[in-house]
Protein: protein-glutamate O-methyltransferase
Organism: Candidatus Thiodiazotropha endoloripes
Amino acid sequence: MKEHPEDVPVVGIAGSAGGLKAFKALLSNLSGEMGMGFVLIQHLDPNHKSILPEILAKDCPLPVLEITDGMNIEPGHVYVIPPGMQLTLLHNSLSLMPIPKDKRLYNPADLFFQSMADDRGSSAIGVVLSGTASDGTLGCRAIKEAGGITFAQDSDSAEYDGMPASAVSAGCIDFVLNPVDIAHELVRIVSHTAPRPSQIFLKSEETLTATQEQLNKIFILLRARTGNDFSYYKTTTVKRRIDRRMLLHKLERISEYILLMQQDPQEIDALFQDILINVTAFLRDPESFDALKTRVYPKLQENRPLDASIRIWVPGCSMGQEAYSIAMTLIEYLGDRAGNYPIQIFGSDIDESAVEKARSGIYPETIEDEVSQVRLQRYFHKVSGGYQVNKQLRDMCVFAVHNVIKDPPFSRIDLISCRNLLIYLGATLQKKVLQVFHYALQPGGFLLLGTSETIGSQADLFAMQDKKAKLYQKKSVATHLNNDFVFRENHNPVAIEVPERGDDLTLVYSLEREADRLLLETYVPPGVIVNSDQMVIRFLGRTWPYIEPSDGAASLNLYKIAHPDLVVELRAAIHSVIKEGGKIRKEHVRLKVCGEAQRVNIQVLSLGGAIRNEENLLVMFEPVTVSSKEQIVTDEAEGEQKENLEALVARNSELEREVVTTREYMQSIVEEQEGTNEELRSANEEIQSTNEELQSTNEEMETAKEELQSANEELSTVNEELETRNDELARTNDDLTNLMASVNLPILMLGSDLRIRQFTQAAEKLLNLIDTDVGRPIGNIKANIDIPDLESEVLDVIDSMATKSIEIQDNSGVWYAISIRPYKTLDNRIDGAVMIFIDISAIKDVDKIKQALARERRLATVVRDSNDAITVQDLHGNIKAWNPAAERLYGYTEEEALDLNISQIVTEYGQSDLKRMIELISEGEKFEPMQLERITKSGEVVQIWLIATALMDDEGKPNALSTIERVAH
């Protein structure tokens, strides 16, 4: 049965500068039997035609194709992105899209990986190879969230480790290996799994087979290691994560995985991270933030006192993007009013590493795709490797490790944003968490959930405000939060004894809260909490008349809003506590309130490090009342002093003058200090302005650097292609050199300008060439062979593009056939001529032989048909030839005659004439025709007329004789 194409696992491989070498190493170790489709995403120069498919095809055992729009993925094939395009995957179809004009938005690896994660889910595999910047990081995060597997090239083998290092630092990479090992790991994963490669990863509805007892063992190991109980998380989610970890370790039975967890605690940490899925983004789901701006933020400032802080809680905050996003949108909504309200945003998560990243506020450059340029410039500043949230937002957001299931919740919260956390929890945990949220919220507070989450059965606790954005508001109903709420191994809650009257618990709780409030109001003196700059950050109780607003611009500076009579004592006490620590108390400090003299005790205490990196002070004002006994003593003293009234008046006037003088002096000091502060503030603003200009310049330089880096990556890719082509040309040149040296044939290559390009060793001797003749015109060479009109012949071949052949004889008499062919380039352009010299002397000799044979055949015909007897004899008289006429004349057949000597058919009287004839012919003299006697086979003597002719050898010497004989009449 043919596998459905959408079941084929897809391996996305991304690279940039230095990626070509890594691609070749990885692909050369793959196999066509893996059943996977491989898609290569390379940063290419959009203006340069790529030869990447041709280069990779030479080392890859699989077919390599350049992608066309709408192409379907088939297993056992490699697909390469074309230049100037981005790529996405939908239902097994590859779709090409043009690259954006803004190069900062050009992240082809992220785009394809994210679409692959959406399309293939858990059967997606992402590989990040050598390259600069951070393309591929967000894509790998999406693949990891979908349950797929991710690889990154290690820094030792990567020529540029920017891309793989960014993905690794983001915590979304499963394997960090060199390209060869990545290929081997892919092969091992396929060979370890079921017969069909599509079964490498489980679908959303598929989970591994495991008993509840086995899962409980895993939950116990997780709880012992991390302190978190996952037994009430959704079983399907937990099982898929366990199966993924088993696949990575190539384990088939869950018992083997439990043993691995017992032996390797780091595997517990890895499973913990996989279950958490710390994946989020800035300003995710814009409609949710629109709902906050239209429905929540306006309510937060309605009838809110200026000293009442806005408190927001983001449980499951991951790396802080959600908390910072709320901070940005809230500041934008409040505008100039943002300074009127203290804003506190609490981000919590059970993953300590994620919380640390949230506190640092440093994010990769890929957030440019999530945050607009305006917000980047306003809320972030550039740092090495990315962006950092500015101090204003970091001061508003407080992050802590917190388990919403078991830890005490934050209280008096105005808004809770808990998105995509409940989907991982079972129904029991969801119910408990929603009760915790209801308890934590202020009356009328808001709850924001993820787009795929609801409050379920807790509709009695929350009212729907925006169905699309999943925004709810707290209902005013009583709830009971039991902080000892735990679960047993059998997943049943611990039994809680409930009183017969269900309202008793609520009543007890209300009494305790009311008692605490009355105690604070009755016995705790009023006061304020100030920071290290003596700015009031919290008012405690009713602070009038010790704290009152002053004329002019509103301020929270303690010295400006404190009663004038208390400023000197406050300064001294606070200065002493800051310098020496501990606490200090000023007793019976006098002040006038509405014309009446009062006394107050001032106590200043250090709060130490209650808030990290801050030194806060608690200032309390304890009113002092004058007793009746003290008042009587005062009256008696006044009576005695009446006698010295004038002296007392004078003394009092003097003291008042001293006080006024002291106050004026202290006021001058204060004014001078304030003037100095204003100057410092002005200088600081100028420095800050300069710093902003420098920051702007730095950002421009960073932008230019990014553009240069992008161009450098493209040039690097082109350079790698050219290097590969140079290697091929070098090999081709070596092949040509060896061929020219091995061919024992004169070959001469000429350019279109008739200058010599190449020649063989055989051509050196024939044409009288030396090595330095390369580049010289052929007309300047004095060859050993004369070729008439050579230059015109070659030009005629170049112009007509037709092959021409001519025959020439050299100075030594050797014949050559010269073939002149046009020299064609790869693009079928004529760029010269090639001359090949072929020795045809042997062919010429064969022709001569053929001509001689033809003559001999003609002569043989004449001899055969002649009426005269014709014979051939050597100089010893042995008969060598005998024609039919001789057979008829003498009666001997040709076979019989060839065994005779001529002397055997000559009479005794004719022997002397025969001898004289042979001698004359042997000496080269002429023999005149004569009449002789011959004896036939029958013994008859006949008179013949004989004509003898000498036959010559190659040197012109007689070696035989021919006779013509006829009967004399």
User: Anything to note?
Assistant: The radius of gyration is 55 Å. The chain has 27 helices and 35 strands.
